[in-house]
Amino acid sequence: MKYLLDMVHHNPGEPPFQTAFLDPANLVAHGYTGQVFKHINCIATFRTLGEDFFPEGSEERAWLEPFTAVIEAEISAAKAVGLQVFFHIDLFVLPKRLIERFHDRLCDKNGRISLDQEFTLEVHRVLFDELFGRYPMLDGFIIRHGETYLYDTPFHVGNGPIPLHGPYVEPEREHDRFVKLIRFLREAVCVRHNKTVIFRTWDWHPDKFHASADYYLAVTDRVEPHPNLVFSLKHTAMDFYRYIKANEALGRGRHPQIVEVQCQREFEGKGAYPNYVMEGVINGFEEFPKRIGLKDVVGNPLIQGVYTWSRGGGWYGPYLQDEFWPALNAFVISRWARHPDKTEEQALQEFCHERLGLTDADSAAFRRLCLLSARAVLKGRYCEAWDRTLNGIRTPVGLWMRDDRLGGRDQLAEVFAYLYEHDLFETALREKAEAVAVWEEIASLMASIHFPDRALGERLATSVQYGLRLFRVVQAGWQVMAFGYVADRTGQHAAVQMRAAIEFYDQAWKSYREVASMTGVASLYHGYYFSLPGDPEVPGLNATVERYR
Hints:
Elements (H helix, E strand, L loop, with lengths): L2 E7 L14 H7 L3 E5 L20 H22 L3 E8 L1 E3 H6 L1 H4 L11 H17 L5 E6 L10 E3 L12 H23 L2 E5 L12 H8 L8 E6 L22 E6 L15 H6 L19 E10 L11 H15 L5 H13 L3 H22 L2 H4 L13 E2 L2 E2 L6 H9 L3 H24 L5 H37 L4 H20 L26 H8 L1
Parallel strand pairs: 1-2, 1-10, 2-3, 3-5, 5-7, 7-8, 8-9, 9-10
Antiparallel strand pairs: 4-6, 11-12
């Protein structure tokens, strides 16, 4: 493939991850051809506009100089081993002083940096000219729209170029705006500098650019192809959940594409416990009768690469001390992408022999463990009775458990209403019990495998205990919530069952917290729900259990 790229996506506003995937030599050893970094747009000075937006002695200058040095070191290290270098940038993000100086020429009546203002595009032409002039070895940019995080860039402000939600949405103009933006990027980067633009189609809507093949074609068919203009799509139609169908825009249209794959799944534990997903990514996941994976599109000439996030995605924890499970996913997808004539199973077997030194018998047991891990996650954190009603395009239950946070009755309200109305609580609770049973089988398999690296084997066994004990918490929590929901709706309390479920919940948490003392373990989940940094804590599973207690 022309592109085999990897990015470590550090949590916004937090210290960078300590990971081998920041080492360019490690990427070369995996067969990657390029490394992706972030925020180079924020070191542009825009001096050709005639003013100094980072004046000597200012806080801005004190921030800019060390930030620039880090980015220059990243470029130098990657180029020294022959990697392509791309920077993932958010549009539109500009220095605060620049916005203050040119506010009326850049912003609309709502104070947003506007694509409708021609000066906005001129400023970004200056941005690209400056960066390619200073760093001619850059290969291009990966453009993100719609999500703007400024936690690491305190002297910049910004917003997405095409509003997709909230009060500023204009659906009738969305196609035209995307076409205008992409045509500009094609001219300003691909034509003007002969560099590459990888335009991420990602959004979180089931009927817009990323998830809808019709929308994708309606936009991209209006843009003249260029060999350096590439579109990036996730392999799923929405985010990296299960029960989400394959992205139907893959292999469609007139333009080259790369496929995004997450190795540290942010909605599924981030590698704190076993979660081998590459069998499903490549061959299609088991929950779909017709399994469609990357093997079904890799022969299409439009598919020119894979773009992995080896580490990162989402927010907060779990924070890893050992990145074995994301590294396993990264090895298999990179090995397979380089040799798609081989099977996923062959790539995993090569990992077992080359990286673990396992015998054929132990390799077979390890593969069985890996496949079971994907099933354990499917049964533990999703809900088949609900998720199968959504036609593979939207999965609200997938958000009840995210990053290192556990939601409760508020996050599952719609799901529980459906389960109650269709008498499916018993089915859902059996599924959670099945997940724990699968984890127990995984623990038995792990104990049977002889790892030549004994310390590694101990750490992997710990990660299995993390998963087993966490999903006992989940199983107990769902029992409490189910009994409580029925009581709320009927006024009839199953007191004996509820007391037993709460006792199970307390014991499960106690056992799970004991994992924290084990060597190499990741940080633990919390019983409250997700909120953005700086926002108030949101009640989750613990608050729900306390309500029923």
